[in-house]
Amino acid sequence: MNRDGTPDLGDAIWHLKNDAQYTMGQEGLSTLVWLDGNSTNITNAQINTKLAELETAYTNNAYGRTRAIQYKQLKEQLDLLYKDMTAGKLDNTGEWHKHIKKVKDDNPK
Q1: Sign, CA torsion 91/94/98/101
Q2: Which member of 10, 49, 70, 94 has the greatest number of CB atoms within 10 A?
Q3: What is the pLDDT of residues 2-38, one digit of tens each?
């Protein structure tokens, strides 16, 4: 995985064979050396295809990563729920519901 969280060639290889043993330089697949003999015959094309799939999945989940940042911490959410319970607001008028709804509305799927 790259520093920004995006998938890389190593992730693609892991998804194809999670116990693969290999080395690879910064130049990418041109420097890939299988240390386990590549008994499953994984091709560069398969690796590139898997990487594209992982990149698409990462891109399609942008809303989820944004939501995760915008949600209040769990202890704050529990406090909102407690206050809503004691105020008899366990419906869509409660502050917890309003918070969650705003995050979801601001970041639709």
Answers
A1: negative
A2: 94
A3: 888 899 999 999 999 999 999 999 999 999 999 988 8
